[in-house]
Write a structure and sequence with these properties.
Elements: E1 19-21, E2 27-28, E3 31-37, E4 45-52, E5 57-58, E6 61-62, E7 67-80, E8 85-89, E9 93-96, E10 102-106, E11 112-119, E12 127-128, H1 134-137
Antiparallel strand pairs: 1-3, 2-5, 3-4, 4-11, 6-12, 7-8, 7-9, 7-10, 7-11
Length: about 140
C-alpha cells in the first residue's frame, strides 16, 4: 500500500492488505494482523484489523497520540496499568488516551477481533514493552 499523494479516491482491495502473524515479542498466543492503512501524506493515522485466538493478547504498550479500538467480533479484555481489567465485546469502541500503558486481547475462552486506529508521531504509533504474564492476564 503506497501513500496516495494525489487528490484521488483510493480503493485498497481487501485481498491486497498485508497479513502477518503477530510478532512473538509484541504478542502472546496466536494473533493475525491485517494492515489496513498507513499514515500517508494526507494524514498520520494508520489502522489494522487484529484477530486474537482465545488467550492471545498484546504486550504492554503505549501510543503517543492514543488509540481507538472497534471490536468487530467476539469477547476480549483490556487493562490499563494499575486499573481493573474490562471486558470488551462486539460493537464496543475503546478509546485509549495518549501515553497510557495498557494491553488488550481475547478473553481466555473467546476469540476476539478489533480494528485498531492510532496516529503516528515521528513515524511511530506505538512503543512496545514487556509481555503480559499469565497471572496478570488472568487477573490473579
Amino acid at each position: 500500500m503506497e501513500p496516495n499523494p494525489s487528490n484521488e479516491v483510493t480503493v485498497i482491495p481487501f485481498d491486497e492488505a498485508p497479513r502477518f502473524a503477530g510478532p512473538a515479542d509484541q504478542f502472546t498466543g496466536e494473533v493475525q494482523v491485517e494492515s489496513l492503512f498507513h499514515a500517508d501524506l494526507a494524514g498520520t493515522n494508520g489502522g489494522g484489523m487484529v484477530h486474537f485466538q482465545p488467550g492471545a493478547r498484546t504486550a504492554w504498550h503505549t501510543h503517543p497520540r492514543g488509540q481507538t479500538l472497534i471490536v468487530t467480533e467476539g469477547e476480549g479484555w483490556i487493562q490499563q496499568e494499575g486499573k481493573e481489567r474490562h471486558t470488551i465485546r462486539t460493537g464496543d469502541v475503546v478509546r485509549i488516551p495518549p501515553n497510557t500503558r495498557h494491553w488488550h486481547g481475547a478473553s481466555a475462552a473467546s476469540a476476539m477481533s478489533h480494528i485498531a486506529i492510532a496516529e503516528s508521531v515521528d513515524g511511530s504509533s506505538v512503543t512496545w514493552m514487556e509481555l503480559v504474564p499469565n497471572s496478570a492476564y488472568l487477573g490473579q
